[in-house]
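FORM 12-B: Structure-to-Sequence Request
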């Protein structure tokens, strides 16, 4: 094996090392209830909800994550607030929708210090936490550097690179992947942080994003294993390639049978940006590379958990895992995100709390969860009050109990304000069995007027029965049999639009009118 990849993959044999960490036993009970826990927040990129073995994927191998799921709490109905990278990350930092904070691809706004002071990072730092940040940033900013926001920072703007050339202390040079680099940076933080205060380390992996699909090997229609840089790699050297995998383009669909061309024209950028999902050979290769990256993420998480144990941090460190959104990989004849389909909207989300009661371990919660809940949850674990415009609820009570949640939300507002590549502006509302989506076509960047919709008719609507049509292929928006359901969901959607538009005005007065 090429020694540039000499770190072993953490697969089934290594899970034995991790399981003792996941069973707190008697020693964990000695951790005082009043001690604020350390927080490890892991955010991946473009990762869909069904992409771990422990979440139901048929052939991917993810033993470390599966072990955490078996001892933690999974949220199987977790939705991202904004289904594109920049606004989703800003929304998690600030705990509120793009409609309120204005941070997105189709907005000219930039994050400023007055907003940041009420981010989860700043609030934890003010409460005495030592803060670390590793990985992808991707939020436009003004008036500060990324490094100034954290006690430890190894961040990058944009998508970043896939390969890194590094040199060991012995002088040996080797090539490593982006996941390896970020994990090494995270371990360096764990080794250098002060030991007299709790920490919050946020790790934002830039995989399995589509940019890495291309960077891994530029010829997307052929095996990335042909790249000499991947020779001998225990994952990218050939994992899964002996499987004859099923993928959406084996049953090619016409995208315009789902969203009409005059609502979203694929030729205006989508089928170019995600061209590998519009071709049979490269779509299959996308699946191989995508799930190889997911398996490497699993390896990295396994190493991090192992390192926490070695440093005696395992019994009082809460691990929160999520992704910035999902992605279409040929479904509906399309690629990419920015749409309110579950495949782009739902994210893998779980929490492992070593201090939680034994009877909560391995539970799967069905409550509707927003990515904005993650922000509030991080603060709640630290005993810190959320800021006035944070819209999420804490997931901590759901982790610590097996009982049905009291007074939890019955529905959830969804939005996409990215209008590039002819993507429509979208608003939606999802509940247990139904999802409603409406679409508008603003001219280029959206404005305040585009968000009001007083009397404006949408250009297209979708209504799905999520119980009988989990694949969201049967649009019932024009069906007279469900017109009352549609009217009810329209009203709920409009109620949330009105509420958030009022919050948008108040937010501007507090943070942006200085």
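FORM 12-B RESPONSE
SEQUENCE OUT:
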């Amino acid at each position: 094996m090429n020694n540039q990849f000499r770190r072993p993959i953490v697969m089934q044999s290594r899970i034995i090392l991790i399981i003792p960490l996941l069973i707190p036993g008697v020693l964990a009970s000695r951790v005082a209830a009043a001690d604020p826990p350390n927080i490890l927040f892991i955010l991946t990129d473009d990762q869909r909800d069904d992409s771990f073995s422990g979440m139901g994927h048929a052939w991917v191998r993810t033993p470390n994550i599966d072990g955490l799921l078996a001892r933690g709490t999974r949220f199987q109905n977790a939705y991202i607030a904004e289904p594109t990278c920049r606004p989703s990350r800003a929304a998690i930092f600030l705990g509120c929708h793009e409609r309120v904070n204005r941070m997105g691809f189709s907005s000219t706004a930039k994050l400023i210090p007055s907003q940041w002071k009420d981010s989860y990072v700043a609030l934890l730092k003010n409460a005495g936490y030592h803060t670390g940040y590793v990985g992808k940033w991707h939020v436009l900013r003004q008036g500060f550097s990324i490094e100034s926001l954290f006690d430890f920072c190894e961040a990058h703007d944009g998508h970043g690179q896939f390969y890194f050339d590094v040199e060991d202390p012995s002088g040996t040079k080797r090539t490593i992947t982006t996941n390896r680099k970020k994990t090494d940076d995270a371990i360096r933080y764990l080794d250098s942080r002060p030991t007299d205060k709790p920490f919050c380390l946020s790790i934002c992996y830039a995989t399995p994003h589509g940019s890495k699909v291309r960077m891994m090997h530029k010829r997307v229609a052929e095996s990335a294993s042909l790249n000499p840089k991947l020779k001998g790699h225990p994952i990218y050297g050939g994992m899964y390639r002996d499987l004859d995998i099923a993928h959406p383009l084996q049953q090619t669909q016409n995208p315009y049978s789902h969203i009409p061309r005059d609502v979203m024209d694929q030729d205006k950028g989508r089928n170019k940006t995600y061209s590998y999902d519009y071709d049979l050979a490269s779509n299959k290769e996308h699946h191989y590379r995508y799930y190889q990256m997911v398996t490497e993420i699993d390896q990295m998480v396994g190493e991090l958990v192992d390192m926490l144990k070695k440093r005696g941090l395992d019994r009082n460190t809460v691990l929160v895992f999520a992704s910035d959104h999902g992605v279409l990989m040929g479904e509906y004849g399309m690629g990419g995100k920015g749409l309110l389909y579950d495949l782009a909207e739902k994210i893998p989300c779980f929490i492992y709390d070593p201090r939680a009661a034994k009877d909560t371990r391995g539970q799967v919660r069905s409550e509707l969860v927003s990515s904005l809940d993650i922000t509030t949850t991080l603060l709640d674990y630290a005993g810190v009050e959320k800021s006035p415009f944070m819209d999420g609820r804490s997931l901590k009570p759901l982790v610590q109990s097996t009982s049905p949640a009291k007074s939890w939300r019955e529905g959830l507002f969804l939005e996409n304000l990215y209008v590039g590549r002819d993507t429509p502006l979208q608003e939606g509302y999802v509940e247990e069995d139904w999802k409603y989506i409406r679409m508008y076509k603003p001219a280029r960047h959206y404005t305040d007027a585009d968000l009001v919709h007083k009397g404006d008719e949408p250009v297209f609507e979708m209504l799905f029965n999520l119980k009988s049509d989990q694949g969201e292929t049967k649009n019932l928006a024009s069906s007279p049999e469900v017109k009352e359901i549609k009217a009810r969901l329209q009203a709920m959607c409009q109620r949330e639009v009105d509420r958030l538009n009022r919050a948008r005005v108040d937010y501007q007065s507090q943070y942006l009118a200085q």
